[in-house]
Amino acid sequence: IIVAEMSTKDTLTDKKYTLKALDIADKNCEYVLGVVAQTHRPNNPGIMLLTPGISLTAKSDKHGQRYGHPDEAFVRRGIDVMIVGRGIYRDENPKLRAEMYRKIGWEAYTKRKNKE
């Protein structure tokens, strides 16, 4: 899995880095399972797009983290896998919250697939 782009403001993964990482992924698709990115996806449809910074409620935080809702991520950006951190482990009931993310994520994914 290649990290091409992160969800935090002012990261070192600028556009030049991101495009180079995507190029490396495409040229080495027999070894690359996926790419971590926000807005760019590999040209090869066999490489998954994994996206961090998914939240049901937050848009940003005091650490510069920017969040997107599962609907926006799956339907508009076409991601394959959402990565959720604080939205689950900081909840009072992480197990219930994880199940909520799974359900909403699956619904968003199926919305996208139904549009294709």
Helix share, percent: 25-40%
**Outline:** globular
Structural class: alpha/beta
Distance between the termini: 26 Å
- Weakly predicted, low-confidence segments: none
Largest sheet: 4 strands, parallel
Radius of gyration over all CA atoms, rounded: 14 Å
Strand arrangement within the widest β-sheet reads 1-2-3-4
Description:
The chain has 116 residues and is α/β, with parallel strands linked by helices. Helix content is 40%, strand content 9%. It contains four helices and four strands, in the order E-H-E-E-H-E-H-H. The chain has helices at residues 15-27, 70-76, 86-89, 94-115, and strands at 2-3, 34-36, 48-51, 81-82. The protein has a four-stranded parallel β-sheet with strand order 1-2-3-4, with helices on one face. Helix 2 (70-76) packs parallel to helix 4. The longest helix has 22 residues, at 94-115. The two termini are 26 Å apart.
Produce the secondary structure layout.
Blueprint: E1 2-3, H1 15-27, E2 34-36, E3 48-51, H2 70-76, E4 81-82, H3 86-89, H4 94-115
Parallel strand pairs: 1-2, 2-3, 3-4
Helix pairs in contact: 2-4
